[in-house]
Design goal:
The protein is of the alpha/beta class. It has eleven helices and eleven strands. A five-stranded parallel sheet has the order 7-6-5-8-9, with helices on one face. Bound molecules: phosphoric acid mono(formamide)ester.
Length: 352
């Protein structure tokens, strides 16, 4: 099955992943064979939120494929600052580009944008919701360095509430066999309800724990995350929770010899710099794999046909209570819901 818009990692199948990973491995082995693969193709890079890795790795991925890039990393320089809607911005950009890569602080923004795009749209992060291409980088790292995806204990540590990368990663790993999760977080940063619902529904085995040190010895993968300061409604709450977990070289003493220490980056203080020299620390490698898997992804999306999206009736019937859901600011969006033991917002996945 082909995926047109990569919005939510849940859409990814194992077959689709295996295909993409196979292309990625070939790109790594024979980069020269791909240097003209996107000649004449154009990628739009719309970053409504700061980024180093995702923005630059997508741009370099496209340049390494011989394609071109336009876009912005400061939305104040675009007409969205004059009040242009997301829908109109996407209608315009999709008429200029062959694929769109978008990061936006509003949860569900990528889903909303895809309704108005003539070309494939890739979610480069929508608020604290999802970050599917980070997950592709994570899967590439695990597949390559663990030798397979599955048969492993995965520790997810830190901000599991606002950390969109862990949400996407769990959704992806649920498709692979025999993964046990250790959700290492303080109560105030625990995995959100919709994610726990998802894990239960998909028969995922998980333990919610608070102690990093005592959990480390059981892990094959330790996925550290930053406390996401920018997502806290109350800065005092951030001050209370920052620095709650710090991985040090000493804490790694009890870990397996082939543990993979991963992190989507950027880090603040949750991994001490003395861990960087440990061969188990693979987070910089992980970021480089991100560029290669994004090359494989762009190779597909830029060669898909342009399709005019159907007219979307702007009538709204539901109001999502999530204050950072895209429907709060883009008030013309149509109602989109789904049922999963209760009604959920089809943009941001919050319970309605
Ligand atoms: N991992 C990640 O999304 O990093 P950036 O915010 O720098 O893109």
């Amino acid at each position: 099955m082909e995926i047109r818009h990569l919005i939510n990692i849940e859409d990814v199948t194992v077959e689709w992943w295996n295909d993409l990973y196979s292309t990625c491995k070939d790109i790594i082995a024979h980069p020269e064979d791909y240097s003209d693969a996107c000649r004449g193709k154009v990628m739009a890079s719309l970053f409504f939120e700061p980024s180093t890795r995702t923005n630059f790795s997508f741009q370099t991925a496209m340049l390494r494929l011989g394609g071109s890039v336009f876009g912005f990393s400061d939305p104040s320089a675009t007409s969205s600052s004059k009040g242009e809607t997301l829908a109109d911005t996407i209608r315009m950009v999709s008429s200029y580009a062959d694929t769109i890569v978008m990061r936006n602080p509003k949860e569900g923004a990528a889903k909303a944008a895809s309704l108005y795009s003539e070309v494939p749209l890739i979610n480069a992060g929508d608020g604290g919701h999802m970050h599917p291409t980070q997950t592709l980088a994570d899967l590439t790292t695990i597949n390559t360095l663990h030798g397979e995806i599955g048969n492993m204990n995965v520790g997810l540590c830190g901000d599991l509430k606002y950390g969109r990368t862990v949400h996407s990663l769990v959704m992806a790993l649920s498709k692979f066999p025999n993964v046990t999760y250790y959700l290492i977080a303080p109560r105030d940063l625990a995995m959100p309800e919709y994610m726990l619902t998802f894990m239960k529904k998909h028969g995922q085995k998980y333990y919610e724990v608070t102690n990093l040190e005592s959990t480390i010895p059981q892990l094959d993968v330790l996925y550290m995350t930053r406390i996401q300061r920018e997502r806290f409604p109350d800065p005092l709450e951030y001050d209370r929770l920052k620095g709650v977990y710090v991985l040090t070289k000493r804490k790694l003493d009890q870990a397996k010899k082939d543990l993979l220490v991963m992190h989507p980056l950027p880090r603040v203080d949750e991994i001490a710099v003395d861990v960087d020299s440990d061969p188990r620390a693979v987070y910089f490698e992980q970021a480089r794999y991100g560029m290669f898997i994004r090359m494989a992804l762009l190779l597909r999306t830029t060669h898909m046909p342009r399709i005019k999206p159907p007219y979307v009736d702007p009538a709204r019937e539901h109001r999502c209570r999530n204050k950072v859901c895209v429907t709060q600011s883009e008030t013309y969006l149509p109602s989109l819901t789904y049922d999963a033991d209760g009604l959920y917002c089809g943009y941001c996945d919050s319970k309605l």
